[in-house]
Amino acid sequence: MTIPELRQNKERRQKLLECATDLFIEKGYFNTAIRDIIVRSGFGTGTFYNYFIYKEDVSRALLEEFANQIVSGFSEY
After folding, report:
1. Which of 16, 18, 27, 68 is the most buried (most CB within 10 A)?
2. Nearest 5°: phi and psi at 16?
């Protein structure tokens, strides 16, 4: 895999996470379906499933990002 492909993969995953975050805020976690995330992102179903299997995987990834931001904030001090 080339560097541009890796960057594109990271950007796609990030866009899915951003769309999920927006929908979780707008509709709530339980009222947001995987299909909603796919439609909002503009990607195909296969693209979503390349990165995540379940909606819980999306929320886990968001929590990991949040935890990493907190830890990196502490390491600055």
Report:
1. 16
2. -60, -40
* Domains, the chain, with CATH or none: 3-75 (1.10.357.10)
Indicate whether this model's pTM tops 0.90.
Answer: no
Angle at which helices 3-27 and 34-41 cross, to 10°: 120
Q: What is the pLDDT of residue 76?
A: 64
- Distances from the Cα of 7 to the Cαs of 1, 26, 55, 70, in angstroms? 10, 28, 23, 24
Q: Assign residue 50 a region (left: φ > 0; alpha: ψ between -120 and 50; beta: otherwise).
A: alpha
